Amino acid sequence: MENKIKLIKYSASILSITLIFTFIGSSHGLQAKLKDPTLPTHTLAVQKTDQQQWILNSILHAPQRRIAIINGKSLTTGDTINNAQIIAINKDTVKLGSNKKAIILTLKSRKIKEPR
Question: Does pTM top 0.85 for this prediction?
Answer without folding.
Answer: no
